[in-house]
Amino acid sequence: MLVAAVFELDAALGMFAAGILANAVLKEVKAEYAAEVMDKVEIVGFSFLISVFSVTSGVNFNLAPLRTLRPAAARGILSEVTASVRVTGALTVLIFPAAAKRLGR
Questions:
Q1: I want to staple 46 with a disulfide (CB 3.0 to 4.6 A). Which of 60, 61, 71, 96 is the partner?
Q2: What local confidence, expressed as pLDDT, does residue 22 receive?
Q3: DSSP letters of the chain?
Q4: Whole-number pLDDT of residue 69
């Protein structure tokens, strides 16, 4: 998010740019230190930063078109979105760190 703000990029592009910068920095340190840092970055990234990105994306979501729908339809759409965000968050927190460890990252 900081890289996105400094370089005035979209949040997704900012996260990608931050990854490129981190990759360049990690290539300059010893391999064991880089592996340890990457393990910690992946844990924080998968458990926290993806959730922050989802929240900031949701903050920028325009709800005005949903207000023109019938109230029942709008509630249904919002409840489906809420459910999908919860499922995605649970998968992110539970599955991805385990998969990363299994892959040796």
A1: 96
A2: 83
A3: -HHHHHTT--HHHHHHHHHHHHHHHHTTS-HHHHHHHHHHHHHHIIIIIHHHHHHHHHHT---HHHHTS-HHHHHHHHHHHHHHHHHHHHHHHHHHHHHHHHTT-
A4: 64
pLDDT given for residue 44 in this prediction: 76
Which residue type sits at 79? S
User: Which domain covers residue 27, as residue numbers?
Assistant: 2-102
Computed on alpha carbons and rounded to an integer, the radius of gyration of the chain in Å comes to 18
What was the pLDDT predicted at 46? 72
Q: Return the amino acid letter for 70.
A: R
What's the domain count of the chain? 1
- pLDDT < 50 regions, the chain: none
